[in-house]
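Data deposition worksheet. Section B asks for the primary sequence of the deposited chain exactly as it was used as input, without tags or linkers unless they were present during the calculation. Section C holds the resulting structure in token form. Section D is free text for depositor observations; keep each observation to a single sentence. Incomplete worksheets are returned to the depositor.
Section A, Depositor: J.P.
Section B:
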Amino acid sequence: MSIRDQRRERVIGALVVHLAKTGLAQTTLRELATAAGVSDRMLLYYFADKNAVLAAVMERLAGDLAATLANALPEGAALKPAELAVRAAQLTTSEAMRPFMRLWVQIVAAAARNEEPYADMAQQVMGGFQLWIESRLDPKYRDESHAMATTILALIDGLALIDICVGPDRVAQAVDAIGAMFDK
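Section C:
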């Protein structure tokens, strides 16, 4: 890896931390450069424009999130939909995941306004997580895997909204209720 690529990777890492902490509120080119510890000009040396910066950071964030989820639920886990829904809900509502889920909600909101590059990012991230869920469903649900994965994603995104609007205690209650509902 070239020195330029190594520095670019460090910039991306710093911006991952920045966005997880601040969300999308501080994403002017100047604010991103400051957070990365470089000048505006240097940031544009590493990336074509602000959208390219954000795309690279979101790609890294999605990869980090996928790795965290994969460690918790390895591919081939072959879970029933109810069990996968509960486990995924528990993972994504954890304290460690909260900043990422809040950022995800902001990205979805920006995508809903057709802001670039968020519309494309949201579609790519959603597609990646759809595949992640489908790969962990018991193969006997193969014919229904797409619909079930979409339902689980809706559940997880809904929990992120509940967390933002009414707090983590309500989310914990909801996750417990989901488990109890499926146990019946």
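Section D:
The chain has one domain: 3-183.
Residues 10 and 178 are 40 Å apart (CA to CA).
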